[in-house]
Amino acid sequence: MEGSAGGRPGANLPAVASGRQAPACYTGTVIRLSALAPAKVNLVLRVGRARPDGYHDIESLLVPLDLADEVSVAVRPGQPGAVTCHCPGRPELDGPGNLAARAAEALRSRLGLRDEVSIAVKKAIPVTAGLGGGSSDAAAVLRCLSRAWRVRDPRLLASVALEVGSDVPFFLGKGAAWVAGRGERLRPARVARLHLLLLYPRDAALAVRAADAYRWLDEARSGRRATGRPPARAARLENDLMGPCLARLPALRALAGFLEEVGAAASIMSGSGPTFFGSFQDRAAARVAAKALAGRQAGGGGIETIVVRTVARIPGVSPWKSPRSASSRSTRKSSRRT
User: Fold this and answer.
1) Which CATH superfamily is domain 195-309 in?
2) C-alpha dihedral, 246 to 124 to 89 to 212, nearest 10°
3) Could you state, in order of their start, the residue ranges of all structural domains in the chain?
4) Backbone angles phi, psi at 290, to 5 degrees
5) Pairwise CA distance, residues 139 & 143, whole Å
6) Is 50 helix (H, G, I), strand (E, B) or coil?
7) 4-50 residue pLDDT tens
8) What is the CATH number of domain 26-190?
């Protein structure tokens, strides 16, 4: 989904930063805020023709999960400084190239500010997995900064979000949504709670860049006319990127086979992959299935099994609290790795 494209920034986006907002939490001259950044899965991903700008129009049904990164943002109002980003235990994700840092820099630039911004991201969502972790982190940063800097213009936030990444506007919304265009046109959707098992292959050779997945789809369609497609129905899982990815990386077929083996009601690849997910009757059944797949491999490495469920709403922003505070328990993710 990260490589898809669409039309005018800001169209039909929820007003996530308009109106009166609660005061931020000040500690001396520092504003400290935090937010959970949930993962997502695509229940439907339909890809239209490639556009002249190199992107694709898409129609996708996205739902947030209870698997989430923890994002903390510290702002020093009036004190010029850099935007820094640190991911404890994941030094390869540190620095200005992280989407969270890029989002902060983009919004700061649009507002003409130079305030020092420090970002910390505690990762729980697998990276380059088709689960939207980086985009969700970026949206969480935009939520925090819009509160710290009193941004009340939802179109400005929508434009910045789309500049950073095609999935970012979804994570600025309220919850499950049909997404169209490049990712900027959102229509709220009602999706019953689902209990899912995610299978993520650890073999680096099976990692899929979104741009590659869309290119493989274009090559598979070469010689055929690719047209826009009508909205799909939520009852049918589908992903236009899955076929081309399986053709290029056949080892991924093992993931679908594992889910079928343990009785998943349905299984599919999420976004540009390589994560596959299957649905189960309840959380207990998903956990039993995860245990049954312990030790399995895809390609040259093992697989990570993560039991999750869909959630109705994307979490909001909270004043930062010390991990020693009992009240901080409410900010911890409810997902469980197995």
Assistant:
1) GHMP kinase, C-terminal domain (3.30.70.890)
2) 30
3) 26-190, 195-309
4) -60, -45
5) 6
6) strand
7) 333 333 333 333 333 334 344 444 489 999 999 999 999 999 999 88
8) 3.30.230.10
40 is catalytic: yes
pLDDT in tens, 199-228: 999 999 999 999 999 999 999 988 665 444
pLDDT digits (tens, 9 = 90+) for 126-171: 999 999 999 999 999 999 999 999 999 999 999 999 999 999 999 9
Q: Among residues 164, 170, 134, which one has the least CA distance to residue 16?
A: 170
To the query of whether residue 167 is one of the catalytic residues in this protein, the response is yes
Catalytic residue among 40, 57, 240, 333: 40
Instruction: Enter the tokens of residue 244.
Output: 């081309």
Burial group, residue 113, by CB count within 10 angstroms (0-12, 13-18, 19+): middle
Single out the residue of 250, 297, 252, 306 nearest to residue 278, CA to CA: 306
Q: Which of the residues 69, 167, 212, 240 is marked catalytic?
A: 167
Tokens 């399986």 correspond to what residue? 246
Structure tokens at 200: 């993520």
Neighbouring CB atoms inside 10 A of 267's CB total 20
pLDDT at 55: 85
Length of the chain: 338
From CA 162, how far away is CA 142, in angstroms rounded? 12
Q: Report the DSSP pairing between strands 185-188 and 177-181.
A: antiparallel
The residue among 130, 110, 118, 140 whose CA lies nearest residue 42 is 130
